[in-house]
Amino acid sequence: MAIVGLYARVSSDRQEKEETVQNQLEALRTHVQGNGYQLAGGFVDEGFSGASLARPALDQLRDAAAKGDIDLILVHSPDRLARKVAYQAILLEEFQKNGVQVEFLNHPLDDSPEGQLLLTMQGAVAEYERAKISERTRRGKQFWAR
User: Fold this and answer.
1) Model confidence pLDDT, tens digit, residues 89-121
2) Percent of the chain, pLDDT > 90?
3) Measuring CA to CA, which of 45, 72, 77, 126 is 20 to 30 A from 11?
């Protein structure tokens, strides 16, 4: 039986108010129960960008993986883990080196070249989406400042 750590993240106040982190956790817990996993705990970063690796719960998750406290990390989608392709690759490689599998609810990991390409493409799209959101926010602030 796999010992699972759940990871969930939201970056904005709006997402926190809409309880999207709770939605993520509910879906993750349902998956844990449906697969007979043992839940070690949840690691939740609220108000932290996926474009940074400096996140308290992510640090705790990485420590738990390094100590061997968990066998599997369950995340809703790749963009909840990281919003930069390079960070996604770093984290996945680190977890793999520690013998910890990562499973995404909306993207089953596939070690085939095609599966890795799709995961990288999803990461690139998440990074692009974040850049576009930042650009729109900046333009909106400039508009209201004028």
Assistant:
1) 999 999 999 999 999 998 777 777 776 666 677
2) 52
3) 72
Domain that holds residue 66: 3-145
Q: Which residues are known to be catalytic?
A: 11
Q: Which domain CATH number covers 51?
A: 3.40.50.1390
User: What CA–CA distances, in Å, run from 11 to 17, 34, 103?
Assistant: 11, 28, 21
Q: Extract the tokens encoding 53.
A: 């690796």
Per residue in 3-21, pLDDT (tens digit) is: 999 999 998 655 545 558 8
E-only strand ranges, 2-88: 3-10, 38-46, 72-75
Domain total for the chain? 1
- pTM for the model: 0.79
Angle at 121 between CA 119 and CA 123, to 5 degrees: 70
Largest CA distance in the chain: 59
